[in-house]
Specification:
136 residues; mainly alpha; 5 helices; globular
Length: 136
């Protein structure tokens, strides 16, 4: 129990520091963003399933966080969603992902979610891709 509380406090402190030092967003490019390389897509898919799924539900249909389904994201401005991913939502459990995702990667992820085709983790892949050097 104590280790869990310490981890939670560490993550909250880290999120607070990251929010304080967050870089301003630049204007997003229009049109589809090129997909990340396959190894990076796999890493993002793992984060989506394991980290985002912890709050948004493993099927992305909601939980502590709102659903991330195509229906739930319909009509929401992509730029606003990308900003939420990168900057988080201060005062909530939504952390900023700017330290881990580039703006283009976040835009690609939002495009995938809004299209109803979130990147999937293949069942035979390891829990953490071997090429990952940074994890949240």
């Amino acid at each position: 129990m104590r280790n869990g509380l310490q981890r939670l406090l560490f993550l909250l402190a880290l999120a607070w520091v990251l929010v304080l030092h967050a870089r301003p967003l630049t204007r997003l490019e229009s049109g589809p963003v090129p997909a990340p390389l396959p190894a990076r897509q796999m890493q993002i898919a793992h984060w989506l399933r394991d980290d985002c799924g912890a709050c948004h539900g493993l099927t992305l249909k909601g939980g502590l966080g709102l659903p991330l389904t195509r229906e739930a994201l319909a009509g929401k401005p992509a730029q606003s969603l990308v900003q939420t991913v990168l900057q988080g939502r201060p005062g909530t459990a939504m952390p900023p992902w700017a330290p881990f995702l580039s703006e283009r990667e976040a835009q690609w992820l939002i495009e995938q979610l809004q299209a109803g085709t979130p990147p999937a983790v293949s069942p035979d892949s390891p829990a953490v891709p071997a090429s990952s050097s940074t994890t949240p």
